[in-house]
Amino acid sequence: MGQTFAEKILGRLAGKTVVPGEIVQVSPDFAMSHDNTAAIVKTWQEIGVSRVENPDRHVVVLDHCVPAANEKFAQNHKEIRQFVKEQGIRNFYDIERGICHQVLCEEGFALPGKLIVGSDSHTTTYGAFGAFSTGIGRSEMAAILATGQIWLRVPETMKIVVRGVPPKGVSAKDIMLHIIGSVGADGALYKSVWFTGPTIEALTIDSRMVLTNMAVEMGAKNGYMEPDSKTLAFLDGRAKTGFEPVYSDADAEFDQVLEFDVSNLAPQIACPHTVDNVCPVDQVAGKTIHQIFFGSCTNARLEDFAVVASVLEGKRIHPDIRMIVIPASKQVLQQALKAGFISTLVDAGAVLVNTGCGPCMGNHEGVLAPQEVTLSTSNRNFKGRFGCKEAEIYLCSPLTAAVSALTGKITDSRSSIK
Amino acid sequence: MQLITGRVWKYGDDVNTDVIFPGKYTYTVTDPQEMAKIAFEDLDPNFAKQVQPGDVIVAGKNFGCGSSREQAAFCFKYARVGAVVARSFSRLYFRNCINAGLPALTLPQSPDLFQPGEQITIDLQMGRIFCAAGEYSFPPLPNAVLGIFQQGGLIPYTRKSLGLDGANQR
Ligand code: SF4
Question: Which of A52, A222, A283, A309 is most buried when burial is the number of CB atoms within 10 A of its CB?
Fold first, then answer.
């Protein structure tokens, strides 16, 4: 019998043939941590070793509250800078570089066939490049700093086949919200999810990352797409090390196979307070909003800026709302500056903020007040996510966010596409 | 392993980490006592005030979904919760519980079996739960991770595996 992608990668690292359900002890190729590195280091110190097992295994990115919002965050950053210097961790990216998941992809750590763990749930993103990537806890990262090892359960695989050319204005975000809405927040619990089919193949790299990023919102352990010529072109000149793509065998066994046809899909939106509470945008159209957040590791890449700028070009956003714009990385910012997208957005009345997570975790830069409603291009709408448990968060595509910015209400982009 | 005895705190499906331990505190609240006081802040403000050692949280499917933040497991440990029983757990939450040494038990009948506030007893060794509705079994932890759990969590386990036990302990 053939093997799945997940069985092959974990088997390679475990040095044996593995089957779903089995627990293996493995060394990840890369391990990512962000602002939580300071807390991880404290736990690592409790273990009682003085040197990091392999500094080059680790990638540290400051992004969750950058620049520091107050003294506590500043102290946190200071301790991390000290630690990476002392321990010789060269793969360190300071506050100007971008959101961790975007940075690992741009810097060529997210590579086909690699096992990458991160102390952040959206580490699943790197599967867009054919990596096996998954989130872990802080103690586990501390143990990796000490031993280079982690235990992982070999997951069953759910194959999701997507077909059809989506209608104009329907993006990867709409497709993924639709999938999460149908599968449910726990529909892929513990599973490795393989996104495949003609629609996936046709997606750009930026768009593919939206799906793997949000795979964790249906409980998945990791999301995976087969590397192809687009993947290789993206990695050309960027890959940090050599790599070997890994594919599932044709006769591999899948736990579940789901098919989606997106030919007639309408723009989708996730309503408060769960990501699987999804409906077509027109069902909630007309709802008054107070803020738009165009940012996060899900949807703040160059193609997203192009879409938003094309809608806002020469217009003003509605006077009763504010629009927070945070590029996913410095590279995205630089490209968007060059393309003129940033000045289009700022001219339209948007507020540009330094690259990073911004209000996505409720830390700063656009947190909400009670009874306020925000429309966000990010990935989670849980109660309190934007710093206030009495606020409402709706999740949508950059296009839906942009057309709604003009009207001040949740708006179906199809009513404005001519 | 000892018996766990305590009162039931009952919740529903898809309880996420943001309501267990809000994201805005993840870099600012690090003291165990303070962490215990925040537990469930956005879901049940009474919980942290009234929880007693040994109390058991029971819930439906996908408990602990969302963030990787392990404070969402540790805050219950610091509040001296005896165990969390759910129909299913998010994978990160389940890992974090093992690594924190907090019993996370999967029971298909949860939470319908339980009445809020009732006293229940859990025998970890035997894999049994005793409650008003009867006596039920839950699957034991996989052998490969049982060791971590028995050492009281991943950090003590790692110390032991590196031969550092006894030295320099907190
Ligand atoms: S942008 Fe939001 S979801 Fe992405 S890593 Fe930052 S806090 Fe997490």
Answer: A222
